[in-house]
């Protein structure tokens, strides 16, 4: 499916990343020695059972959380070891976020929410680009509405538009359709797909839903803090099939770890 | 349920501390007021009881003792033969006559000693040594010797061996050698800041009884029954036991302590009033934040009553703990204030702490206010539908119509009460009506603040939205009009009170300035600071001033303010050596007759003439304070004018005045002459006049209003307390808002907002809330000041002036307060852990 970029560079990469929460008895190792690359212009889904470390991985990749060991790069920029200020600037300029919910500021209109990162940076968003995204997301007549006046699907579309507004190097989405019905979810996923195909956007999306994963170019499976499978050209059926054998995969991973 | 409440409270400590602080401050001041009053009363009565130790009976005139004070010699004297009679009564061991009254002493600097507290002269006798302790030297043995109090030494800059000049209203100057210095028992320098001079009895009588061999009081020791003494001297005199007299004397001081107590109580109540807003606000926000928790409780079967109970229980726990803390701190503060009052105004009176049972009221007030304030939020909490637990909690802003209508109605009621209180329609209850009206109007205006907040916050915010984080701050401030409004209200009330008082003060100043400007056609004024006595100077000095070559005219004024009667009614009498000239300078004009009064002439202004029903040519009986009664003929009717209203007698009658000396002179400098040079010349002439000095018109206005400035400053200092509570309110609201918007902040930080920007956003919100409160408070304060000025226009407060300098200061202060209040909440917002903030619950 991926046809957009002829030259594949790496947008995001993790090298031997470890992350543990707590100490001693209560210690939980969320990520153990994770190494993974995400090609630019590709749409990657991360899947795995609850508690497998998907969100943790995403947070570490996006500079929201620090790693215990290992390094993370966004493009050429090493994320590891950056100051809070530098991380903030990195997030502002190079990363777009879509969360499961609470993506928007209730005091701002849809349009203001879309241009929020630029406003924070004190810069002016590229109007042609914004217009294009808004058009693609079919938000033209919703721009002056406050988030409370929008449906959940519309809110997530506004969040998508915001994530893309500053043309970030990569967009991270943590279960962006988790709170949506099938139709609204499909709309959002279709847009993410379009943005990859047409605009060459790089997207990393955490999801539980095999049919959502099917929109991606590649699916990375996580279990117990480790990557256990890397599937390209996924379909819903292939993913479901893989998930059925998950217990075996996890057992194999644990054996490997031991 | 209670367990759940307590557990919930324990998990919100910061919030509890902030809410409690408001209650603590409110109760603290109420308690301090009561402790101060009781402590001062007890300490003062202790001292007075000391003064009467060993005195078994006290004889005074049966006439009203109040009349014995002041300048007037009176019928209240006890002739020396009465003292002899008392000495002869069975059981009387000793009896000493006491002469005391106000004297004027000239200090080292050539001016009067103790301009604000009087100098008391008395006869030093055996009895004097009872509670006075000689520190140095001895008592006076000759009429030109004097023993002075330690306070006198401090104030006058004179000490043992020096010569001091003193005189009284009725006795000319004499020089005395200071032969001793005494202090009061308990190693104090004075009773209440006064200075004292002890003379021989004969000299004290020359100064204070016009030389009559008489006394004001007789102190008796021995076991004679008061009845026996009374029988011996007759019904013209009153005989009390030492104890009775001591109690009576203490009552006078108690009244002073009471007034002080009431003032503090007033500020305590303002603090409590302001705390109410803070408490309501805090509980409203807490309830809003606990909406899901409460809904969950309701869903699993808690009754509405239980929800109300849970919120009220929380309030009660806060109320009890905070009030007890407030009471404790209040006792400390009251004790501290007593010390301060004692050392600054009571000559270091030893303070005995007294915690009156009434201070428990502070507890009741603190607990009551907290619980009552929580009722509205509690009832609102119980209205949370159980389904809210399942839904996403969205709080759409409630419509403001109801609250606005209620606000208008309450404000109107308050306004009417204020108007009634100011216009004498309520009789004795006028002041109470006025104050209650102000209180009610404040509540009403508070109800109106949410609707006012929309345009005002937008306007104030527009100024701050130059940066994006500023714009977000502005939007946040406008987000919940009720919350913003109630937070700002606390500040509004404090600012409104100071602005109101400042407006009245500046109107007084403006009126005085205009008065001087419009009514005084003079360049220089000779007068003294109004102290214990009315300051005067010698007629010869006046003549000298008149004779100065560069002086073109001098208006002068003599006065008799106590004890004179016209047509049987007590009134003040005025006189001028040259009434036509004086009228010219005082902008007075003659309506009928001639101002060049004959010796039996009388001039009076139109409205007084109408009041007394006299016309030109009528003869009216006039009685002077010295008892002289003469029929005088109205030979001039004056137009009503500010400075010349009253009864004017001819120069020939001045000799009957208690103080036949001019009080004021208004000097017109010749055209082309240098006013400053003339002022210097007059100053030289006045070198030997301790009571008065010469000022130009501008300084005159300044002097006349300096006391008002002191008043204004004290009010500002006391209201700073309300402002502190208001700041806590702003901090509280901001902290709670930051907590409430954790997720939003997390989002903003996740998509690239820097810590500095987050901090700025909160700061702008804070500054807007504070400015909103200040602007509103200034507007309300000006309205309040204007109302009072309008009501007092009849009494002479003719000008209305705004205290611009203070208004600007308050606005700047509001910005400073906003910055200050934002420090902690902004730091909190900046330190926010992005990951936790965006983590789903
Ligand atoms: N702040 C934290 N403190 C302690 N443990 C944590 C924290 N965050 C995550 N964990 C633990 O780390 C592991 C991975 O968590 P993570 O949130 O990454 O899982 P996930 O794959 O996103 O799960 P889900 O699909 O439920 O969102 C879990 O065992 C979790 O309990
Ligand atoms: Mg997750």
Description:
Chain A is α/β, with parallel strands linked by helices and 258 residues long. Chain A has one domain: Rossmann fold (3-Layer(aba) Sandwich). Chain A contains 10 helices and 10 strands. Chain A has helices at 54-61, 84-94, 110-114, 116-121, 127-136, 152-165, 182-199, 210-213, 236-244, 246-257, and strands spanning 10-21, 28-39, 43-47, 69-74, 77-78, 95-98, 170-174, 203-206, 218-223, 226-232. A 6-stranded mixed sheet of chain A has the order 6-7-8-3-9-10, sandwiched between helices. In chain A, β7, α7 and β8 form a beta-alpha-beta unit. In chain A, α6 packs parallel to α7 (182-199). The radius of gyration of chain A is 18 Å and the shape is globular. Residues 1-6 of chain A have low confidence and may be disordered. In chain B, a hairpin with a 6-residue loop joins β8 and β9. Chain B is built from 23 helices and 25 strands. In chain B, the strands form 4 sheets. In chain B, strands 14, 15, 16, 17, 18, 19, 20, 21, 22, 23, 24 and 25 form a 12-stranded mixed sheet that branches. A 6-stranded mixed β-barrel of chain B has the order 4-5-10-7-9-8. By secondary structure, chain B is of the alpha+beta class. In chain B, α2 runs antiparallel to α7 (242-289), α11 packs across α12 and α19 (697-740) packs across α21 (755-792). Chain B folds into 4 domains: 1-54 and 259-395, no CATH class; 63-235, no CATH class; 450-519 and 698-840, no CATH class; 530-690, no CATH class. In chain B, 55% of the residues lie in helices and 15% in strands. Classes of the chains: A alpha/beta (258), B alpha+beta (841). Chain A binds chain B through residues 59, 64-65, 84-85, 88-89, 91-93, 96-97, 99-108, 116-117, 119-122, 148, 162, and chain B through 394, 396, 467-469, 472, 475-476, 479, 743-744, 747-755, 757, 834-835, 838, 840.
């Amino acid at each position: 499916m991926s046809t957009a970029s002829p030259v594949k560079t790496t947008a995001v990469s993790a090298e031997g990343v470890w992350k543990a929460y707590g100490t001693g008895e209560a210690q939980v190792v969320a990520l153990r020695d994770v190494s993974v690359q995400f090609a630019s212009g590709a749409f990657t889904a991360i899947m795995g059972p609850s508690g497998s470390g998907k969100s943790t991985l995403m947070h570490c990749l996006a500079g929201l959380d620090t790693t215990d060991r290992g390094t993370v790069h966004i493009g050429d920029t090493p994320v590891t070891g950056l100051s809070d200020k530098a991380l903030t600037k990195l997030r502002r300029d190079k990363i777009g976020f879509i969360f499961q919910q609470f993506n928007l500021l209730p005091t701002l209109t849809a349009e203001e929410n879309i241009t929020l990162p630029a406003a924070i940076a004190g810069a002016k968003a590229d109007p042609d680009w914004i217009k294009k995204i808004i058009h693609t997301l079919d938000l033209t007549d919703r721009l002056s509405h406050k988030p409370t006046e929008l449906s959940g699907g519309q809110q997530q579309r506004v969040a998508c538009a915001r994530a893309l507004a500053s043309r970030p190097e990569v967009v991270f989405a943590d279960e962006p359709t988790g709170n949506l019905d099938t139709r609204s979810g499909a709309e959002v996923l279709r847009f993410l797909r379009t943005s990859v195909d047409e605009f060459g956007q790089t997207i990393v999306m955490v999801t539980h839903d095999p049919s959502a994963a099917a929109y991606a170019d590649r699916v990375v499976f996580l279990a117990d803090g480790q990557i256990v499978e890397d599937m390209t050209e996924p379909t819903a059926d292939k993913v479901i099939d893989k998930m059925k054998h998950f217990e075996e995969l996890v057992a194999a991973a644990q054996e490997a770890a031991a | 349920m209670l367990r759940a409440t307590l557990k919930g409270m324990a998990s919100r400590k910061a919030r509890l501390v902030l809410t409690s602080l408001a209650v603590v401050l409110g109760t603290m001041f109420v308690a301090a007021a009561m402790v101060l009053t009781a402590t001062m009363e007890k300490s003062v009565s202790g001292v007075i009881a000391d003064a009467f130790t060993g005195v078994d009976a006290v004889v005074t005139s049966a006439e009203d003792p109040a009349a014995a004070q002041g300048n007037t010699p009176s019928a209240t004297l006890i002739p020396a033969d009465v003292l002899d009679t008392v000495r002869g009564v069975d059981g009387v061991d000793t009896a000493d006559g006491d002469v005391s009254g106000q004297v004027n002493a000239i200090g080292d600097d050539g001016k009067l000693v103790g301009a604000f507290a009087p100098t008391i002269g008395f006869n030093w006798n055996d009895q004097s040594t009872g509670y006075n302790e000689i520190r140095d030297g001895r008592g006076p043995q000759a009429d030109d010797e004097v023993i002075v109090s330690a306070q006198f030494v401090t104030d006058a800059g004179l000490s043992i061996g020096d010569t001091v000049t003193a005189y009284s209203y009725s006795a000319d100057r004499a020089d005395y050698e200071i032969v001793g210095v005494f202090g009061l028992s308990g190693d104090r320098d004075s009773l209440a800041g006064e200075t004292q001079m002890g003379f021989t009895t004969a000299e004290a009588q020359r100064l204070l009884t016009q030389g009559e061999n008489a006394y004001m009081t007789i102190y008796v020791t021995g076991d004679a029954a008061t009845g026996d003494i009374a029988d011996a001297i007759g019904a013209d005199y009153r005989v009390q036991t030492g104890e009775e007299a001591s109690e009576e004397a203490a009552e006078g001081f108690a009244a002073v302590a009471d007034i002080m107590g009431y003032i503090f109580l007033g500020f305590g109540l303002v603090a409590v009033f302001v705390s109410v807003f803070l408490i309501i606000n805090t509980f409203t926000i807490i309830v809003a934040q606990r909406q899901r928790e409460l809904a969950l409780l309701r869903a699993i079967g808690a009754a509405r009553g239980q929800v109300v109970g849970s919120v009220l229980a929380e309030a009660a726990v806060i109320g009890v703990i905070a009030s007890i803390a407030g009471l404790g701190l209040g006792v400390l503060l009251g004790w501290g204030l007593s010390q301060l009052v004692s050392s600054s105004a009571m000559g270091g009176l030893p303070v005995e702490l007294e915690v009156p049972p009434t201070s428990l009221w502070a507890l009741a007030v603190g607990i009551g206010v907290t619980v009552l304030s929580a009722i509205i939020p509690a009832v609102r909490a119980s209205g949370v539908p159980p389904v809210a637990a399942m839904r996403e909690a969205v709080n759409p802003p409630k419509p403001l119509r109801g609250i606005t209508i209620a606000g208008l109605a309450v404000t109107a009621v308050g306004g009417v009460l204020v108007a009634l209180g100011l216009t004498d329609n309520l009789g004795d209850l006028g002041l109470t009506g006025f104050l209650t009206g102000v209180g009610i109007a404040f509540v009403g205006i508070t109800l109106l603040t949410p609707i006012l907040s929309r345009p005002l916050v937008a306007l104030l915010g527009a100024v701050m939205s130059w940066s994006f984080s500023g714009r977000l701050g502005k939007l946040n401030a406008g987000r919940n009009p009720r919350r913003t409004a109630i937070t700002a209200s606390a500040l509004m009330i404090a600012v409104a009170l100071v602005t109101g008082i400042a407006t009245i003060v500046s109107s007084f100043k403006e009126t005085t300035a205009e008065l001087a400007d419009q009514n005084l056609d003079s360049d220089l004024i000779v007068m003294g600071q109004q102290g214990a006595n009315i300051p005067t100077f010698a007629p010869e000095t006046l003549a000298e001033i008149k004779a100065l070559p560069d002086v073109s005219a001098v208006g002068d004024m003599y006065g008799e303010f106590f004890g004179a009667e016209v047509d049987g009614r007590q009134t003040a009498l005025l006189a001028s050596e040259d009434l036509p000239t004086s009228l010219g300078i005082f902008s007075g004009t003659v309506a009928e007759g001639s101002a060049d009064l004959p010796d039996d002439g009388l001039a009076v202004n139109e409205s007084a003439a109408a009041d007394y029903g006299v016309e030109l040519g009528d003869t009216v009986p006039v009685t002077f304070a010295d008892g002289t009664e003469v029929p005088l003929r109205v030979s001039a009717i004056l137009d009503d004018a500010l400075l010349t209203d009253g009864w004017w007698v001819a120069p020939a009658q001045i000799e009957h005045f208690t103080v036949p000396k001019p009080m004021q002179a208004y000097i017109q400098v010749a055209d082309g002459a240098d006013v400053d040079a003339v002022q210097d010349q007059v100053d030289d002439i006045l070198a030997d006049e301790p009571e008065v000095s010469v000022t130009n018109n501008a300084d005159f206005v300044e002097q006349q209003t300096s006391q008002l400035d002191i008043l204004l400053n004290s009010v500002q200092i006391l209201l700073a307390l309300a402002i502190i509570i208001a700041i806590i309110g702003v901090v509280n609201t901001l902290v709670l808002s930051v907590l409430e918007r954790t997720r939003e902040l997390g989002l903003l930080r996740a998509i690239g907002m820097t810590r500095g920007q987050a901090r700025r956003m909160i700061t702008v919100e804070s500054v807007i809330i504070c400015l909103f409160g200040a602007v509103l408070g200034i507007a309300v304060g000006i309205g309040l000041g204007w109302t009072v000025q309008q009501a007092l226009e009849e009494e002479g407060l003719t000008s209305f002036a705004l205290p611009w300098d203070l208004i600007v200061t308050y606005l700047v202060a509001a910005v400073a307060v906003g910055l200050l209040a934002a420090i902690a909440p902004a730091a909190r917002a900046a330190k926010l852990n992005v990951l936790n903030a965006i983590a789903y619950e």
